[in-house]
Fold this protein.
Amino acid sequence: MSDLRIVNGKVLTNTEVQPPAQWTNDYEVMGGDTEWGPEGNVLRMITVFGIEGEVKPLFAMDPDAGEALSLFQVGDGGFYFFNIEDSSIFKITSHSDLRSIVETIDDEIA
């Protein structure tokens, strides 16, 4: 999967943007294939909401942060948050690029 890369023996999401504070890009910590694989939960959920395209996992909140929130992109377009606890999906409309989304998340944490 081109959305992933191996660094120091860990499978990470393939992005040049670093995760926000208290978030991770460790694929296994993010739920691995169970959440993000071709038959994973996220693909099934976006289909229910009528969202189509290839799912690209980006980041998830660190489990120690207390929330089960993930950030992903569909195709070359929209960015979304996925709340694993209640299976809700929210489209990000205030930003159109990953860097500004991460900066906003970091600003909220600070």
Remarks:
- The longest strand covers residues 55-61.
- The chain is about 25% helix and 30% strand.
- The chain has a mean pLDDT of 90.
- Residues 98-109 form the longest helix (12 residues).
